[in-house]
## 1
Amino acid sequence: MGEQHREISVAEFFEKNRHLLGFNNPQKAIITCVKEAVDNSLDACEQERILPEIHVSIDDAGGDNLRFQIKDNAVGIDRDVIPNIFGKLLYGSKFHKLQQSRGQQGIGISASGLYAQLTTGNPVKIYSKKKGQEDTNMFKVRIDTQNNEPEIIEDRVVDDYDFQHGTSIEMEIEGRYTTGHHSVRNYLKHTAIMNPYSRIVLNEPDGNTIEFPRVSQTLPPIPKEIKPHPHGVELGVLMRMLKNSSSRTVSSFLQSEFTRVGRTSADKIVEKAGLSGKERPLSLEKSDIEDLLEAMQNTSLQNPPTNCLSPIGEDLMEEGLRKELNPDFVASVTRKPSVYRGNPYQIEAAIAYGGDIDEDGRYEALRFANKVPLLYKRSSCATTEAIKQTDWSRYGLSQSGNIPKGPVVILVHMASVWVPFTSEGKEAIAQYPEIIKEMKLAVQKVGRKMKRYLSKKRKEKVLKKKRKKLSAYGTAMAPALEKLTNVEEDIIRKELMETLKKEYGKEAGINGGDS
Amino acid sequence: MGEQHREISVAEFFEKNRHLLGFNNPQKAIITCVKEAVDNSLDACEQERILPEIHVSIDDAGGDNLRFQIKDNAVGIDRDVIPNIFGKLLYGSKFHKLQQSRGQQGIGISASGLYAQLTTGNPVKIYSKKKGQEDTNMFKVRIDTQNNEPEIIEDRVVDDYDFQHGTSIEMEIEGRYTTGHHSVRNYLKHTAIMNPYSRIVLNEPDGNTIEFPRVSQTLPPIPKEIKPHPHGVELGVLMRMLKNSSSRTVSSFLQSEFTRVGRTSADKIVEKAGLSGKERPLSLEKSDIEDLLEAMQNTSLQNPPTNCLSPIGEDLMEEGLRKELNPDFVASVTRKPSVYRGNPYQIEAAIAYGGDIDEDGRYEALRFANKVPLLYKRSSCATTEAIKQTDWSRYGLSQSGNIPKGPVVILVHMASVWVPFTSEGKEAIAQYPEIIKEMKLAVQKVGRKMKRYLSKKRKEKVLKKKRKKLSAYGTAMAPALEKLTNVEEDIIRKELMETLKKEYGKEAGINGGDS
């Protein structure tokens, strides 16, 4: 048996399991590729305080293939890391950081390259020009899947590339360009709603150009990188942190490696753990570490800082929905930050009703994780679960089963230093109960606002009907009353109108106004 | 930016994403651990033609922790691969082979170890005794997650371990032992249905012992390992195969590296590709390779051989269902093998109705992939989709929405050299349209059999009612007829009974028999 055993490279693994990365079929493949590249561009721009400007061009490349190019105005990529970024899976700068970003796993863009070479045999072509430098680096990179290492096909410096600074990626893949819900266009539209400080231009294969203009000139603040919170760490991780620590004492280890642990909290924790705090981190026995962990988890500490999060905010959410959907009513909420497994996160929700929104059938969901639209796996997503667990009839909507119906769009956004996706393809948010609960509170909040709007609307409708009735009644009664009272018909009509006005607030007239 | 970039080990990746491996929560964690170990044991026994005998023991280990041991009677594991098997993710003997087996990714059991050390800090303990050897090797292994390499904590030879031969694994994890649908007990019960040649004993934490006895003494034939089929290969893979080939010519490359390609087919393919066949594999240009691939895909070839598949078979499926469910009616079907993306696969289905099966509510599904029960992610599974796309009212069941209702259990099994799971946790089968179609044909076949049974049952019921009515009628009429005809009442009654018998087949008597 022994001789048959061998290591499996992570690239081989995902080549065979490419559906896990979002490459299930040609239609989804092109969306996934665009998504991974756009996510990286937006992350890079925000990090460097540049208002993003992204051009996406997609062309037919013959047969079942598409060629695409994605070009940004970020600060470019260091020459020495380019091959690894595009030619090695599980490589990147975001995985080991606790900071909100669109990418987090170091798989996305290299997986696109893997899919490209699998289906068309072609390498990825990268142009990148660092800000302040003259030269543009051009690479053609493949992945040596058996070793998960980049294979550099070409590497040269060009001086005629049309760039101020930034990165441009070109690939050829087996893909199918479609419109509709599952489409590049829809993905970019949703991206524009959530990233209103970006300008995105899409050239479609048929020559059509769509621009999603910048509607805000303000970049959100850079989310801060944070350290782990003592309440969210697991035993195995704590053991590794102690082993790798360069701190001289357990007390200084706690203060330097965790957030929200100062001198006083560190003292409390070590005391609870039956330690002095002066022990060297490496000297702790397993039972000491277990005690330490228990003490960490049972010492009350401030919640993690939330400047590591970058929600979109109520105003921008509403502005985005108004711009794209032209609804009659919009409401939004940004909840306070919360924590799951030690990871800070924040839920936002918005609701749009009426106007240009389609009347027929079920609601439309706009799902986002760290500002990235989620188009697939709706039924496995925590957002969907939160919406389904909400009784929408209480908020004035009709329901079929537990699905709200009507001209309504419900937006849910999770911002976090670590979004728990249900697969490497990052298509749906895993159903942690605490996350679903936060999402429910958010959608219920906007639901209540919508209810007020709908009740008011309904009341106005009833009122209008009543007014119309009374006004008709008055018209018929006035001549009869004239005879009875000898008061002139016109005066009676005027009196009746005044009464109606008092009763029903608005301008109301017999036979007049708003019938 | 550059200095922050680094490689991410696959162990780090899955430590942070442990929900992808089936370690979402303590209840699921213990099921996943048992599943991975039992899968390996069954694979090893079958491969070595040993009737499996597996003992699973689970104990409380204080706090939220469980300790478990799983011991098999397979042939043991080579000493030099033990550390890698348990201490390195993506390592194994099954990934690179096209052969039906329960494990396929080289992640399962090492992932359990990863979860164990993350939650309890403890290493995995392994005892393994090779068949025909005296000594038992004992290892304690941890995973160095930053490098995805095993760390050997202890390594010694013991001579007092209670073994003929086989492997025993011990771990301590954060886990919660439950009963019900999502439970170790249910997982083993379903395993017993699908692997009736195994004996499995479960010791539960409360001291309870459950035995799933062996009901068949016949091991299924070993599924053969096959080579890839030319119709299922992708360009990138073909390029790599050509690059790594030791064949001297393209023609011999085709014949030696693929299944169903003999001399004649190879000639046809190279001719279609505009090649002579005498080219050296490494010498082909990319355009040649594209032509070659197109020719491979457009040359009609025999389907892949199917001795790489090991279905359970109709008799054993029915026997398993009868034993565990005691139903009134069982039907089953093993479909002919089919192919998706070049991978041979085979669908089996069975249906059980009535008897001890619960009347209330929706049907129960028994889902299997390569004989392994799938307990989670039902709604994302191809099996569920196939059942939902079937109109069960045509087969005599009532439906709520598209969900069949009644005292009915529907079993679907996919056997394949490569089951496309929706996640590394191997919990659901991805919804490839061709696979769903095969599954539908299978469940519809057993549906039709059930329909015949249910119609017959319904007819018998109607008949019974009629007979009862006529018999009562006869009883009342006989005295009147006696007066009219002067024939004795007893004779009239007897005549009537004879008539009923002729009309309605069965023993029928006036006032008699089966009222």
Note: Chain B has a mean pLDDT of 90.
## 2
Amino acid sequence: KIDRERLWKVLHSTCEWGKGERWGDGPTDIGMSRLTLGDADKQARDWFVETTKSLGCKVQIDAMGNIFAVRTGKNEGPPTYAGSHLDTQPTGGRYDGILGVHAGIEALKTMNDLDIETEYDTGVINWTNEEGARFPISMISSGVWAGAFSLENAYKLVEVGGKATQKSELERIGYLGTLEASHKANPIGAHFELHIEQGPILESSGGKIGAVEGAQAYKWFTITVRGRDCHTGTTEFQNRSDAMLTAAKLILHSHNKARADGCLASTGILKLRPGSTNTVPGWVQFSLDIRSREDATLSKLEEALKKDFERIANGEDVSGVNAQGTKGRGCTVEWQLDTDSPATKFYEDCIKCVEESAKSMLGTNAGGQVRRMTSGAGHDSVYTSRHAPTAMIFVPCREGISHNPAEYCSPEDCGNGAQTLLGAMLRYDRY
Amino acid sequence: KIDRERLWKVLHSTCEWGKGERWGDGPTDIGMSRLTLGDADKQARDWFVETTKSLGCKVQIDAMGNIFAVRTGKNEGPPTYAGSHLDTQPTGGRYDGILGVHAGIEALKTMNDLDIETEYDTGVINWTNEEGARFPISMISSGVWAGAFSLENAYKLVEVGGKATQKSELERIGYLGTLEASHKANPIGAHFELHIEQGPILESSGGKIGAVEGAQAYKWFTITVRGRDCHTGTTEFQNRSDAMLTAAKLILHSHNKARADGCLASTGILKLRPGSTNTVPGWVQFSLDIRSREDATLSKLEEALKKDFERIANGEDVSGVNAQGTKGRGCTVEWQLDTDSPATKFYEDCIKCVEESAKSMLGTNAGGQVRRMTSGAGHDSVYTSRHAPTAMIFVPCREGISHNPAEYCSPEDCGNGAQTLLGAMLRYDRY
Ligand SMILES: NC(=O)NCCC(=O)O
Ligand SMILES: NC(=O)NCCC(=O)O
């Protein structure tokens, strides 16, 4: 049995590094702002390395700054890992990613405490830049490991609103490792990831543990709208090429269309130029995040939006956004694909290890409390599953709130998750 | 007669300070980016002071950094001024404001060249921060002079996207003057302002000189939309309080409604938080610039938008923006008034001086080439007209383009404007 109190205490003590906004009165009612590869992330990483070394682990850092801590087992062979991430959103919480890493460390501590000898090596991974918040490609480092991105392109990625690159920041904080970032050079035996659900399903259905079968598909785009700067006071609507008004129409339409297709659409970043109250902006750039359970549905939505955006920017009416005729002279629209994460199915063997572990922990009345589900968010497990048996464990979070300082997972649910994780790893190791 | 070549040459030579984007192949086909009180503005100011002093003017700087250069006349009494501004938009052109100041200086040079003795003093004014681009209240310094803003509030104004205040920047560049910024302490006898039209009317009607009768009303607001940060991948539309989606609807609706009412609406600035592709923004702030010829029409639009924004943010449908039902849980909307510039009527006596001067310059076929018109933009003349006889002179600019690097006024039109300005000043001085 894991030490639930120790897990809770250690997790929150490390949340000193990268503290965010306070949202409540309790000692842990403070959000996180630990952007990847920043100074606070370095502190959390240093703690990770020290702690796992002190548990007797061999610690290696790869070329993307991913950290692999391994506890030796009886036989040689790729380790069974618990993996997740210590970076957060700019206004994130204390559980998204962080819980998964801490639960992995707690699992290793428990194995040590109980002198458990595993068949093969076991370990914990801290993946770099899972969030994609600072460098805007999510899970890029497990992606490089999986061969989905080249190291070269990953290194060049520039931070949102700044100039630093992933490589320059890895160097700056001393986490540019020598191990090749590759599933071939550094294989994984199995990957289990504990994570808060980040949605309301478990909580609202009374579920305790989600055995995650896979993740929905998503794509991230940068959309650039080009019009013409002009004076707000002297330029009639019909003479404008208003990139901001056009962007507003595109954003509204993307939501209308996604909703009609049973998908999601979101814009989380928007920049404009020149940025003056009395100049109609000639340039707007915004992010578009679209999601669906099915790759085919997502592709259909993407194709439809590409056509519709073009038509809307040219003043044609689509879903009412140009109905009132403030169309002006039109703008151009350019799409750039930043992230393409297809729908993922995890491994039945691993999912079963999670289910069995959860049921044995919850005991006789486990029935409805363990449920199979699909992840709305992407996770590093999406990439590990391309080259290693993988499954995830979800625990409830309050009101499904995540990517928000008020994200919350109770000590009980954190403990349940960590216990299930340990059980799943040991089950898989024996199997 | 003014020296048209000298005017053109000197104007463009000073455009070295604060050069912007090149948009064509010609030597002057380069825009301007001379934000008020920046280093380039200081260079232009230093040039203004030196030049007018070398012409024998007495130069004074007031507490808002407005610069008054005065050429002595026969009798004592408040001077007849040519006034405009040397600051530009971040992506501005070489004529908006700059032409008016240079034409004023050219008028003084011509008076010197021809040994003209005026009845009263004459002079040129360079007003600080006319554009309202860096510190977001337009014409704030002529506004302080007119008593429309307190010096204290003007000093506190913070730059867009930064921390500097108007006062700290006035101090930094050495233009915090000792003269009181007040129409009482420093009265103006009359104010003539030459400016490019910034719209297409003169050009498309074959007009050469606009005798400007007044300016339309406008108001600037900062609108803050508050929702809740959440995960883009795990939060269904109905559980979101999406501040960006709501802002998109409000921006679209403001255009629809303004158009229906024969007004203008524009959004030139938009900021959001936290600014991550996979977090639905919980906070968006944008500028709203609304304009109308009639104060009453503008007030009606403002009132309607205040009600409509509230309803739209709460998910009610107004003008179709919520028709598709992606309304979620709603957001709050807060309005802040930044600039209130009522409709302005200039002085008939001054307008007549402009008309007569233009007609005498254009000669026999002047008929349709001089036309009375209303300004779509605000100008420092709006504030001087509260306490001094005022009129403006418009000259055509290509395609009505302004607040854009490609803003262009031909040498002929620049010269016509300066000649009309000199004539109007001398006519008013005699009168
Ligand atoms: N779990 C999580 O927030 N992952 C980031 C990638 C995504 O936006 O789905
Ligand atoms: N002329 C000019 O651009 N003035 C700035 C104030 C306004 O936006 O009307």
Note: Chain B touches chain A through 79 residues (CB under 8 Å).
## 3
Amino acid sequence: MTYQEAARVKTVADLRAAIRDGAFTGHTAGLAPGKLQCNIAILSAEHAIDFLRFCLRNPKPCPIVGIAETGDPALPTLGPDIDIRHDLPRYRLYREGRFVEEVTDIAAHWRDDMVSVALGCSFTFERALMAAGIPMRHVEQDLTVPMYRTNLPLVSGGPFGGTMVVSMRPLRGQDVPRAVEICARYPLAHGAPVHVGDPGAIGIAALQRPDWGDPVPVTADEVPVFWACGVTSQNALLSAGIPLVITHAPGHMLISDIDETAETPIWKP
Amino acid sequence: MTYQEAARVKTVADLRAAIRDGAFTGHTAGLAPGKLQCNIAILSAEHAIDFLRFCLRNPKPCPIVGIAETGDPALPTLGPDIDIRHDLPRYRLYREGRFVEEVTDIAAHWRDDMVSVALGCSFTFERALMAAGIPMRHVEQDLTVPMYRTNLPLVSGGPFGGTMVVSMRPLRGQDVPRAVEICARYPLAHGAPVHVGDPGAIGIAALQRPDWGDPVPVTADEVPVFWACGVTSQNALLSAGIPLVITHAPGHMLISDIDETAETPIWKP
């Protein structure tokens, strides 16, 4: 199934079914408009409470929107019949902090001690900004948003810590205040930006050399705006070097049944 | 130290010091205006992850604003030098789901496997409503807000579940919309109300016979408004019948260094 075909699928249930069956394995940006998409981290119960501590102490980069029972692949608060072993288009496996492989299904890797944690995602606020007429250049140019390591310290939780990863979107000066106000409405999608302007002030040496994603030009009438980024949690998981972590592949998110504008990310039948 | 003397203490540090020394053991409503106050639940690490799951799945009654390391009485994200063994005016101990005693210090009960969890509290939105000119009758009449068991189901996490406890405040009809809008700004303090009007619709038989707190009259030009209540978490902890739970005594909260209007409840030096 192509991205264009996936974009024409009518319901979240049908789209997740296509992903579950392996018919669609592409990125999910722009699919199922209005539905909350989620970063996913899967780790052993032994490390889960420390990871929750880390996320709860760093709510802007790591806003928790769902958590599964130990060993249970369901995430019933995010939608009916979610099976996290099959319902992401692509996964990445990391062992001892090193990338091992990218797969489209993790049933073969599932263990009874695994806990799935879902975190909010920037797609939510990007959609709200575009709906308000604020353009997103990386979307217009079909690029991956540029992401950077910073010197912004995180609050540690067990073995998880380090510094924040941010994403950057260039905005016209006139759009910055409204963008901040709009993003602040979405605390479960990274909330208001963490920095506006000088990249050097937060430890970014070269805006055109992002650590992840593609470089995006910033024109003379624009200012670079930086948001806390979900890659922060992946970075912390890898740096901790725990035996096995499974995450979504970048851009290949869990599509939930939660409306992006819902007060709480709790699905009700 | 009387309540009036505590209300004249200039800084949060001095107020927590008076509480730590046992000089002040009263309720904290109205003290340290503008600072986030917290419900506290202390339980063993064995049950902590399930309690976190329960809270994360029921964010309106149980908004997590802080979590400690296992065995560590500090809560550094809520303020410097907090020691949860001494820094509440009064605690309640429950064993196997039964109330055992109320104490002003828990150093003698502290264990290396204990995890402290802090939850947001209604004082935050009550203060915001009063600042907007919306009166709180139970405050005017120096009563404890009335609280009720409801039939609103919670999402379970491990042994924790049941139904929601709500608090009720009578509002003039004209104040209801603005009250909802103001409270929605505080997702970490129970957010917008969960119900307006008919108590029977959420399983409350008699408004003048609350399950906790004092009855408060509702006049002819008023409507009862119901908010998710932090007692929900205490209720779930007790119903689970786990060996030992320590909580704040009702109204005797942890006073943090976090501004109530802060975007995230993370204290920065």
Note: Residues 45-57 of chain B form the longest helix (13 residues).
## 4
Amino acid sequence: MTATALAADVDLAAYYAGRSVLVTGGLGFVGSNLARALADLGAWVVVVDSLIPDYGGCLFNLDGYEDRLKINIADVRGHGIEYLVRGHDIIFNLAGQVSHINSMRDPFTDLDINCRAQLSILEACREGNPQTKVVFAGTRQIYGAPQYLPLDERHPVHPADVNGINKMAGEWYHILYNNVYGIRACSLRLTNTYGPRMLVRHSRQTALGWFIRQALDNEEIEIWGDGRQLRDYTYVDDVVDAFLRAGMTEAVNGKVINLGGRAPVSHLELISSLVEVAGSGSYRLVPFPPERKVIDIGDAYSSFALAAELLGWEPKVSLRQGLAETTAFYRRHKEHYW
Amino acid sequence: MTATALAADVDLAAYYAGRSVLVTGGLGFVGSNLARALADLGAWVVVVDSLIPDYGGCLFNLDGYEDRLKINIADVRGHGIEYLVRGHDIIFNLAGQVSHINSMRDPFTDLDINCRAQLSILEACREGNPQTKVVFAGTRQIYGAPQYLPLDERHPVHPADVNGINKMAGEWYHILYNNVYGIRACSLRLTNTYGPRMLVRHSRQTALGWFIRQALDNEEIEIWGDGRQLRDYTYVDDVVDAFLRAGMTEAVNGKVINLGGRAPVSHLELISSLVEVAGSGSYRLVPFPPERKVIDIGDAYSSFALAAELLGWEPKVSLRQGLAETTAFYRRHKEHYW
């Protein structure tokens, strides 16, 4: 799927062609897919990524695009960001520590990346690029255990791990800098995102990435609990489409906006679809591991009504289609991701 | 007013006598009043404070108590806290950067104190004192501009400055460590607190402290806007009473609980009462300064219904009585605070 096919109703190419954009975390899963789409649309793309081992950043994610964008290896926690934010029309700010388990094991690193570095980026914009627009990658998980479903943006936030608290603060800095300093910024609260270039090397970042790897390795996938828990999933091309729309839409400034899947899916339905689409792997139900149970939040899925209203966005790729694209990608490029 | 007079209905002395307690920020305004009350109740009190200039900490705040408690000068951002938290039955965690203006001028220092150091304290408890109980000083200001009044704990949080975002994160760490690690913790969300030992040296921390100084200096107090904005005020002895009750109440673990004033008071009513009680000073209305207007939140006052239910707490000291005690204190000890 090419980027221009993502959104027939808005003219992304007319907007992005010739614009200068920065993608932090641009060698990561969503960031690299976004950077590729931006390059395809004719934007001048600079990607910043620290390539911290096990975080998901990977040079192969921009394979074939090395001459079509600039890759700048840098850590958003350090100096250099003051320079790097300058001159860009739009900053897609996706650099983050996204593992819940890592955040509990090492809360200070999570704090430095998800809070302190976000403040650095925004301060750098205030100093050196106040005209820019920032689109931040937030997360549905800051809602915590849902009080009602689907989760809309008015749902109280109730983070259930250190990562959730820090992502919440990082998101708020963006809204604050929009409101107080006029640095146009918004946050997209992503739900479970999957697709080509997601991290499948270990299971600490996403469960689904690990399941995909297990299916392709023809292993038995363990489903925790009774498998009836509902979640929603968005294919990465749909998420990229939302970022592109947010970057060109003034109506989202100062707002947090949920993305969401087409429909809630049970774990059992997800895994059985995956095994069927992959044509390999199997599954069985096992009891919930205690260390995950204490931070588990039960059924959780988001309403994307506000994204539909403000961005004209909706998820277009079905779960089966998305899983087919994903498994095909990893079969083709297994040696770079395993 | 002695601490035991604060709460005839609960036997604070029976609970606190002989207990080991730590008060972080214990040379500051609320912290020092709390430390004095704890010493009066017979507790073994250790006070930790960094005495950062202009933050409000002041050795004279514990004048007369130097031999009745231990004063340990240390910065909660640094090492030492791992040792200092050990062995205490209760930790009253009041160390913080509390100036909204400072947080906008130097957001990273605010982050280090209000987020990172809070995480350090909680990690230190997890490592070295998991049996302790922590009572955190939160703030009403994280609600931001009220969507309804009075503000209860279900009101969405919407911080309007960097300080509010960081205090929100710091509070959430406490709730998280309670929920996940069983480190018993709660947060009291303080509203405007006033009384003896509050900082009156500059106007960056509280408006009321500065007004009190101006009245006692027989100066003209400027009231921003039309003076009709409503706020609530709690006298520090009432706030100390709430902390003492929270420290001995298991039902508050994992909860955030508003404190609140007896009734909302307009700026005009506040200042005219102050000038009358002080017998000096005057006031006039002036336009709102733009740099404050952008972070101003309009009318704001809290419901203390949950504190009443869980702690049996209510504010007992009237505004006029509190202002009389406060102005008398500063007349007596002006040389230490001006």
Note: The radius of gyration of chain B is 19 Å.
